From TrEMBL:
One Gene Ontology CC term in the entry: membrane
Domain of life: Bacteria
Pfam families referenced in this protein's UniProt entry, alphabetically: cNMP_binding (PF00027)
InterPro entries documented for this protein: CNG_cation_channel, cNMP-bd_CS, cNMP-bd_dom, cNMP-bd_dom_sf, RmlC-like_jellyroll
Main location: membrane
Record GO terms (molecular function): intracellularly cyclic nucleotide-activated monoatomic cation channel activity; protein-containing complex binding
Location(s) in or outside the cell: Membrane
Name of the molecule in the record: Uncharacterized protein
The organism of origin for this protein: Denitratisoma oestradiolicum
Keywords, sorted A to Z: Ion channel, Ion transport, Ligand-gated ion channel, Membrane, Transmembrane, Transmembrane helix, Transport
Length: 174
């Protein structure tokens, strides 16, 4: 993929909101292109790592293990990013989820050490990562609250597009 094409894609990526053309150029100089075949593991839950990826083409699945099963959290495509938490958390924290390419996928990868070389750009990137993580935390909190309100037997994600039931008020006559 040509740099001009990559820069156009990055300009549309939410995590680069507020970046100018020079900022994106600086960011691009610190990245490494990576490709993954369908079915390839990009990283696994618990693995150490301090890199974030931006998907240029293809699709990945984010999943976690629970009770010996893989639980799919989300599928991501071009213009979306993953691994942001590894840039924020302590280096020994380990990945919080696994990422698998579900089709041939190309990414731009940037690591923690490379961001130090572009402080102005990294400051804006960290602000945007904070917004992204805060949004994810809000969604997670809403899902937990919804599940508690409606019993643990219903998958929160299975009910996201359905209206919430109205509260039933019982009238008691004396």
């Amino acid at each position: 993929m040509k740099n001009t094409t990559i820069l156009k894609l990055l300009a549309e990526v939410r995590i680069f909101e507020g970046f100018g053309p020079g900022d994106l150029d600086d960011f691009l100089t610190q990245t490494v292109g990576s490709t993954y075949e369908a079915g390839s593991m990009i990283f696994t839950e618990g693995q150490s790592g301090r890199q974030m990826h931006i998907i240029l083409s293809g699709k990945v699945e984010v999943f976690r293990k629970s009770a010996g099963r893989s639980v799919s959290l989300v599928k991501l495509g071009p213009g979306e990013s993953f691994g942001e938490m590894s840039l924020v958390l302590d280096a020994n924290s380990g990945r919080t989820a696994s990422i698998r390419a579900i089709e041939s996928t190309a990414t731009l990868r940037i690591d923690y050490e490379s961001l130090v070389r572009i402080p102005r750009v990294s400051a804006q990137l960290y602000r945007n990562i904070s917004r992204t993580l805060a949004t994810r935390l809000k969604i997670s909190t809403d899902l937990v609250v919804f599940q508690v309100q409606h019993g643990g037997d219903v998958s929160p994600s299975a009910t996201l597009t359905k209206p919430r039931p109205k509260a039933v008020t019982k009238i008691v006559k004396d």
